[in-house]
Every structure is written in structure tokens, then in C-alpha cells.
């Protein structure tokens, strides 16, 4: 019975340790607070306020990146106002908040970040998820109506009408020509028929 109790306690130790870490982190989250999700526009900028208790005013604060806090990379840190690449951090000790600004946002900036208070022993941290919204492209064509454009449209319409009139006239001329030629041929045939009959009658019988 004593052995089974020791083994049971041995197997429960990881769960107790995990529970203790979660409990401690939840207490730390009360000491340090930040929005869970912050969204910024592609190419724009965003700010993340990280609020802390006044007793942590003199502690170093930093902003790090990575899905797991223990393995995250520090992007920028205090004291004073400091910037690194496209990120900057400013600590307002009177208000008890340090603000992180990210500019010229890219799609690759989407990740999990951490507001961190560095202190002896275990640091205090809370996670922030950064989203970058895609740009929306609008195709706008502004067309202004001026007297010149109206005149051009009128001329185009007039030329189109004139082309149709010329085409119809040419078609009528072609049809009329064919009809005239046909009538001339008919008239010639009618004239030739009496002459043939007369020649046949005038020929003597042998």
C-alpha cells in the first residue's frame, strides 16, 4: 500500500507542477494585462498597451515574439524609449503602462507576442496575438463629362450614321444596276424573236 501511494504521487507530480504553473501564470496575468488580440492593416501600424502594477515601475519591460514564451525572441526592451527595426517601446511609469508600436506591418508579422516584466526569479508575462489584415483594392475610374467629350461622341455617332447611309445607297445602286442590265437583256431577246420568225417565213421552199 505504501509503494502504490508513492508511485501514485510520482505520476501525479507532473500534473501538480503543470497546475502550479498555470495558477502562477494566472496570478501574473492579473499583475500584467494586455489585449489578447490586436489587428493592424497591412502597411500600417498598431499599438499594444501593456498595463502593470505601480510596484513594477522600475523593472525592465520587453516585447518578445514566439508561440512559446520560454523560447520567444526579444524584439525590443526598455529602459526609456527604444526602437528596433519596425518596433518601438515606451514606458510610462506614472500611468503604469508600457506601449509597443509596430509599424509598416507585413503579413509575416502575424504571430504570438508577449508583454514581459523582467524580475528576479520568474518573469511576469502575458500573450498577445497579432493579426495583419489584407489590403482591400478598389478600382475607381472617375470620368468627367466635358464639352469636348460630348462633341467627340456626337461626331462618332454622326459618322456611324453616315456610313450606314452610304452603305445603303451603294447597295441600292448595285441592285438597280442589276435590274437595269436584266431589263436590257430581256428587251434584246424580245427584239430578236420577230426577226428570226420573219427570216424563217421569207426562206423559199426548194
Automatic annotation (TrEMBL):
<dbReference type="InterPro" id="IPR003599">
    <property type="entry name" value="Ig_sub"/>
</dbReference>
<feature type="transmembrane region" description="Helical">
    <location>
        <begin position="161"/>
        <end position="182"/>
    </location>
</feature>
<dbReference type="GO" id="GO:0005886">
    <property type="term" value="C:plasma membrane"/>
</dbReference>
<keyword id="KW-0732">Signal</keyword>
<dbReference type="Pfam" id="PF07686">
    <property type="entry name" value="V-set"/>
</dbReference>
<keyword id="KW-1133">Transmembrane helix</keyword>
<dbReference type="InterPro" id="IPR013783">
    <property type="entry name" value="Ig-like_fold"/>
</dbReference>
<dbReference type="InterPro" id="IPR036179">
    <property type="entry name" value="Ig-like_dom_sf"/>
</dbReference>
<dbReference type="InterPro" id="IPR013106">
    <property type="entry name" value="Ig_V-set"/>
</dbReference>
<dbReference type="GO" id="GO:0004888">
    <property type="term" value="F:transmembrane signaling receptor activity"/>
</dbReference>
<protein>
    <submittedName>
        <fullName>CMRF35-like molecule 1 isoform X1</fullName>
    </submittedName>
</protein>
<dbReference type="InterPro" id="IPR050671">
    <property type="entry name" value="CD300_family_receptors"/>
</dbReference>
<keyword id="KW-0812">Transmembrane</keyword>
<feature type="domain" description="Immunoglobulin">
    <location>
        <begin position="35"/>
        <end position="133"/>
    </location>
</feature>
<keyword id="KW-0472">Membrane</keyword>
<feature type="signal peptide">
    <location>
        <begin position="1"/>
        <end position="29"/>
    </location>
</feature>
Amino acid at each position: 500500500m505504501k509503494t502504490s501511494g508513492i508511485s501514485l504521487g510520482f505520476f501525479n507530480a507532473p500534473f501538480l507542477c503543470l497546475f502550479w504553473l498555470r495558477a502562477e501564470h494566472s496570478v501574473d496575468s492579473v499583475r500584467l494585462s494586455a489585449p489578447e488580440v490586436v489587428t493592424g492593416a497591412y502597411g500600417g501600424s498598431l499599438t499594444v498597451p501593456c498595463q502593470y502594477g505601480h510596484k513594477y515601475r522600475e523593472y525592465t519591460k520587453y516585447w518578445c515574439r514566439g508561440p512559446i514564451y520560454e523560447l520567444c525572441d526579444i524584439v525590443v526592451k526598455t529602459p526609456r524609449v527604444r526602437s528596433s527595426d519596425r518596433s518601438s517601446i515606451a514606458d510610462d511609469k506614472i500611468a503604469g503602462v508600457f506601449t509597443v508600436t509596430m509599424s509598416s506591418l507585413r503579413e509575416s508579422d502575424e504571430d504570438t507576442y508577449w508583454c514581459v516584466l523582467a524580475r528576479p526569479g520568474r518573469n511576469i508575462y502575458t500573450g498577445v496575438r497579432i493579426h495583419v489584415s489584407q489590403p482591400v483594392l478598389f478600382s475607381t475610374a472617375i470620368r468627367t463629362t466635358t464639352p469636348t467629350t460630348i462633341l467627340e461622341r456626337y461626331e462618332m455617332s454622326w459618322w456611324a450614321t453616315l456610313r450606314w447611309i452610304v452603305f445603303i445607297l451603294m447597295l441600292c445602286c448595285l441592285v438597280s444596276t442589276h435590274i437595269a442590265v436584266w431589263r436590257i437583256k430581256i428587251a434584246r431577246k424580245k427584239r430578236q424573236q420577230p426577226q428570226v420568225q420573219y427570216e424563217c417565213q421569207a426562206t423559199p421552199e426548194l
